[in-house]
Amino acid sequence: MGITTEMIKQLREESGAGILDCRKALQDSGGDFEKAKKLLREKGLATATKRADHVATEGIVEVYSHGEGRVGVMVEVNCETDFVARSEDFRTFAHEIALQIAGASPLYIRDADIPAEVIKDLKEKTVEKAKEEGKPDTIIEKIVEGFLEKYKDENVLLRQQYIRDDSLVVQDLLNQIVAKTGENIIIRRFARYSLGETSGSEE
Question: Is the overall model pTM greater than 0.85, yes or no?
Answer without folding.
Answer: no
